[in-house]
Automatic annotation (TrEMBL):
The keyword Transport applies. One of its GO terms (molecular function) is heme binding. Pfam families: Cytochrom_C. The keyword Membrane applies. This is Nitric oxide reductase NorC subunit apoprotein. PANTHER family: CYTOCHROME C-553-LIKE (PTHR37823). The chain crosses the membrane at residues 6-26. Residues 43-127, 176-285 form the Cytochrome c domain. InterPro entries: Cyt_c-like_dom, Cyt_c-like_dom_sf, Cytochrome_c550/c551-like. Keywords: Electron transport, Heme, Iron, Membrane, Metal-binding, Transmembrane, Transmembrane helix, Transport.
Amino acid sequence: MNKRQARYFAIGSTLVATLVFLGLTLDSHRQFPKLTNAQNITPAVTLGKNVWHKNNCINCHTIFGEGAYYAPDLTKIAQQRGAPYLRAFLKDPSKFYDEQRHRRLMPKQNLSDADIDGLIAFLDWVSRVDNQGWPPRPITVTGAGPGAGGMALPQAVVAGSTTPAGASISADADKNPVALGERVFRSAAPACTACHSIVAGADMAGPSLAGIATRTQQTLASPAYKGKATDLEAYIRESITHPSAHLVAGAMYSADGVSFMPNTYEKDLTSEQIGHLAAYLATFK
């Protein structure tokens, strides 16, 4: 290739690259309203965005990967935690974390009820933006209650198999209720792993599920139990579909008589999926 050919090649390549760039830019702007749910930007969402900026939340947290990495990414927090949890947390973070024990530094912002509702609306809008799967992993901050251990979860629990030791998993996992239940545990929306660990003492937004089978027997035998279940599987089903049927006394997993557990699983999961999930959780002795 001589100098003239090289020059023409460079000019042509630049023009082609420029046209591709402009085309992609125009296509992105064309899709922005759909991807960002622009039609759902209500006055409450706008108020919440202003509260977010006014209180410098981005100095510690990230959304869409933008901000500081000192505290958890909040892109999907509204789906992972739910409004009751967020409202109680924003009113008084100290009820969830002990700064001396857990080294949590979330300050009490003294937000008004209107500001809290707006911030939750903003975070809910953020969580519904099509951001191509960001963040790439679930929130793994522990210490959601007074008795929480405040430790980081083992990587095997966060990213690997969550099958409990001793559980019998057949080679034909597609037909094994326990194996199918493990899949539901990791893939439900929101994923159970976003709020629950299977490590004893590693409480998150919800209690650790280690030993749930043993604890359930104690709960069912207690006069304080207010639900309708009579056995382990029924109790687990009830906890999934009607999480406020029985609230754990003294634990920071509910507020004003409402569990922080999402109440949408009965609608979002099939009865068969709930059965598989119950079979899986029943193996945690």
